[in-house]
Structure formats: structure tokens, C-alpha cells
Amino acid sequence: MNATIYKIVPQSLWREAEASGYFAGSPVDLADGYIHFSTREQAAETAAKHFVGQSDLLLAAIDTAALAGRLKYEPSRGGALFPHLYEKLDLRAVKWVQPLPLGPDGRHIFPPLED
């Protein structure tokens, strides 16, 4: 579906992932049994709904081709299909990671996103 998907993650969790070479998930991911991702169109709404007011976040862009069909798109908010991964994320699938700062209005400022 999408060539690139996104993960919003606290910087401390991501640094742990970098040390191990994989991202096992945030506490919500671990509780649900899969890693939650967002498409370009879903990322800002995800930030507003689940990360409001949080600073020290990172945005990771993930190459879906590197996941070789292991990604599942499943209904979530309002029936929209969200990408989920039912295993640890190998960091070799990560295209880039950038800070996700808060703007003066309290909303996160996203870098340009690709599909």
C-alpha cells in the first residue's frame, strides 16, 4: 500500500532500540501485541490523539518494502486501515529518524513526509 510508514516514539525508547538493532515497541505496542504505525495521512492525527503535549519525541520513517510482506493493514480509528507489525522492527528498515518538536500552538511540527 504505502512505500513509507511512520512511527512516533519517545527518544529514550528509540535510543534503546538503536543500541540493540531492533525496536520491540512502546508500552502500548507491547500490550496490544503489535507495533502501531501510521501512514503519511494518519501521522498528524496520531500525534494529536496519542502524544498531545509530549516533547522529546522522534519520528521514524520505515521502508515497507524492507518488511517483505510482514506488515498488516488493519481497521482502527473510524475504520481506517493502519499498518501493524506483529514482530520486532529491524532497524535496517528505517529510512530516517527526525525530531518531532512541539510548535508554539502545542502541535507537533512534522518534517516533509513521503507516501
Fold blueprint:
Layout: E1 4-10, H1 11-20, E2 22-23, H2 27-32, E3 35-36, H3 40-50, E4 57-63, E5 71-75, E6 81-85, E7 89-90, E8 94-99
Antiparallel strand pairs: 1-4, 2-7, 3-6, 4-8, 5-6
Q: How would a crystallographer describe the biggest sheet?
A: 3 strands, antiparallel
- The CATH homologous superfamily: Protein of unknown function DUF952
Structural class: alpha+beta
Classified by CATH, the class is Alpha Beta
Q: Could you list the spans in which at least 5 consecutive residues all have pLDDT below 50?
A: none
CATH architectural label: Alpha-Beta Barrel
Helix-strand pattern, N to C?
EHEHEHEEEEE
Strand content: 25-35%
Characterize this entry briefly.
With about 120 residues, the chain is of the alpha+beta class. The protein is built from three helices and eight strands, in the order βαβαβαβββββ. It has one domain: ADP-ribosylation fold.
What do you see in this structure?
The chain has helices at 11-20, 27-32, 40-50, and strands at residues 4-10, 22-23, 35-36, 57-63, 71-75, 81-85, 89-90, 94-99. By secondary structure, the protein is of the alpha+beta class. It has a single domain (4-99), classed as Protein of unknown function DUF952 (ADP-ribosylation fold, Alpha-Beta Barrel). Strands 1-4-8 form a 3-stranded antiparallel sheet.
